[in-house]
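tool_call: predict_structure(chain=1)
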Amino acid sequence: MDTNQTKIMGKQSLKFANPPYILAASSIAGKKEGEGPLGQLFDVVEQDPLVGKQTWEEAESEFMRKAAVKALEKAGLQNSDIRYLVGGDLLGQLIATSFGVAELEIPMLGIFGACSTMGEGMAIGSILVDGGFADKVMAVTSSHFAGAEKQFRFPLDYGNQRPYSASWTVTGSGAVILANSNTQGENMNASIVVAGTTIGKIVDYGIKDSMNMGAAMAPAAYETIKQNFEDFGIDPSYYDKIITGDLGYVGQKILIDMLKEKNYDISSNHMDCGIEIFNQEDQDTHAGGSGCGCSAITFGAYICKQLREGAWKRVLFVPTGALLSQVSFNEGNTIPCIAHAVMVERR
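tool_result:
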């Protein structure tokens, strides 16, 4: 392993000298998600949103535990084979993660990137593997509709009406196992690697509406995607798909328009996980899906499948996150956002 070949690209990016392999990716989805267009692709669809637990928070932890265990199972590994776990969620102090993965006894790095957490986790995990600091790393995240509504908006019993700009927080959890070799895992005839990453910066356009996450996050996605193009000296045609996390219908239009102003047209190859995961008309999800679990389970169930089967060879996976909290929102602050890009390729 020659870590001296690792390249720092441009202002915010890394090109990995030893691209980490994605051994497996899991997707544990809720009932509503299972009824959407990707329903048949998820590893598990839980019909009970509480999964037998007493609270929404305990339920989210159970979703995460199941996702971690399923990823290990698909990779043919034991929890003791994982050097580090990089994970986070939307709940205060990352309680879904802390309680969810405790029994696995894997050294953990807790992270918070809001809905960009899977991108951040995969980026950090890839840096650890490429740099020779770990042989196998798990990135994991989760979200839960009821828990997120309770923390950031209104408890479900309140029965408030949602504006059309609002997104629907996905109930689900996904995990990805990164490794320095491809000796185990699912479908070894097709290797998937993380070729590089562009770490996002905080972008704040002054939006305060927590019911319009797409508009708040689109500028962050714009900044990261544009920087990826500039740092690597490429254009949108380099990728078969440029996939954002949860901009939804509102944010997608803003992102495309912003990039067009810089002469980057992604309208033909852009995809948004929040749009793909639900049927807008039949499922009453308004602007689309959101939450840490949105991009995580879409990546595990659909994006990896398309890469392994050869439908796509290169994708730019860009989960987006709104970094607000109960405190910042109640004090009338704006919503700072971030997006992290992960370059995933079929080899």
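agent: The first strand starts at residue 7 and ends at 9. Proceeding to next step.
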